[in-house]
Amino acid sequence: MDISPKDPAPDGAGKTTDTAHTDAPEGPIQRLKALTAQLPSNTLGALWILQAAFLFSIMVTLIKFLGQDLSVFQILVVRQAIMLAIVAPKILSGLPTSLATKRPGLQLTRIVVATTAMLCGFTAVIELPLADATAISFSKTFFVTIFAIWFLGETVGVHRWGATIAGFVGVLLMLRPDGEGFIDSFALLAIAGAACAGLVMIVVRLLTRTDPPVTILTYQAFGVGMIMLVPAVMTWQPPTLEQWGLLLAVGIISWAAQMSNIQAFRAGEATAIASLDYTRLLYATIFGALVFSQWPRVETLIGAAVIIAASIYTVRREAKRGRELARAADGRGYSN
Q1: Number of domains the chain contains
Q2: H and E: helices and strands count for the chain
Q3: I want to staple 173 with a disulfide (CB 3.0 to 4.6 A). Which of 126, 164, 285, 303 is the partner?
Q4: pLDDT in tens, 74-108
Q5: Is residue 72 assigned to a domain?
Q6: Distances in whole angstroms, Cα of residue 217 to Cα of each of 13, 155, 207, 265
Q7: CB within 8 A of 60, min separation 6: which ones?
Q8: pTM, two decimal places
Q9: Which domain holds residue 238?
Q10: How far apart are CA 201 and CA 221, in angstroms?
């Protein structure tokens, strides 16, 4: 019997099998990439910034826990060393070109200010309730407004000045002077940290006009670590195995939080996603209560509400006027 007319059938079956093999489900990472690729850019940015807020909150919780036994210098130098190890391939691949800067003085300024921001901010995190330290850190938006006038020559209208003044009123509500009129010194440190974080944003904006991002990253990675090294050695306490694990987690989570933050503002519009960063206050309240049995005072909640409302208004007002807010992804929060 002649079966030649049936010959194509097996070939077709073979092709069907190949196609089925090709269309077989891919791994979870590939499926996740395919899913996120279909999301609107602002939705993707929102997911990234929510992840960043959660990671930053875990980071400060771990720092507060470690700060009960270890100095802030020791915590930060180990954190910086771990983050440097993670980004080392990118930095080393750019050497020596990545060391070429047209603004060495400004690079040094950023290193010093960023170091100060971290020391003040993380000391406040260790000594204050998490919700208080987190809420006060949001005031950096208002310092950006002031520094933008001084260093960038920006013109600020009555609406933005009103939001800035309202924001500082919110900060005053949180300072909680005692019966003799004295203000918690660690709350003042939190404000100083926020001011330095705001100044870092301005300096980064100036640096990006002349230097590539890898150069800015290289100088901070080495510079901050060198400044922290000496006081860290002087205050060093041998960490336990558990503390080493937590220190490692701080470094990795800090890097992951920064990357999530950068991805958020690459994917979405700042005005659409910036307000979601304030979920850090919710996380800080929850972690503070669960881990340290610290509940925010009424003054803290009221002051935080004023600060957040004024910050959101400032960002949206700037977008409406078509200006970019002087901010940088790596200068947000405690990620300096």
Answers
A1: 1
A2: 14, 0
A3: 303
A4: 999 999 999 889 888 887 887 777 788 889 999 99
A5: yes
A6: 56, 30, 11, 18
A7: 122, 125, 130, 133, 134, 284, 334
A8: 0.79
A9: 42-331
A10: 16
